[in-house]
Design goal:
Layout (H helix, E strand, L loop, with lengths): L5 H16 L5 H20 L5 E5 L3 E7 L3 E5 L6 E4 L3 E7 L1 H8 L5
Antiparallel strand pairs: 1-2, 2-5, 3-4
Length: about 110
Amino acid sequence: MRTVTKKDVAKRTALEYNESNGENIKIYTAEKFVDAVFVSLRKILSEADPEVRIEIRDFGVFEVKKTKAKPKARNPRTGQIIYVPARRKTHFKAGKILKDELKQEYPE
């Protein structure tokens, strides 16, 4: 499995921007914008009280959802019954364009 880092995303963003706009922004400039977007998304998701939905058209939806408390969960190692408190979790649902791209046949 290949790992794509934030720096890789910034490089690709600069390349896409330069190709589509005919301008020439530097990778370190794109890194600042990509980092700002990720920080903004993280802050919005972490400040959810208790739920939030970030919808990015043609890409997907990020959501924070509440989970229910589980008073009778079991530790699989010891078999001991434990209480798991309610918490928040993140969820991503791909948008239509992304789903369609991923449904295309993958060359082996």
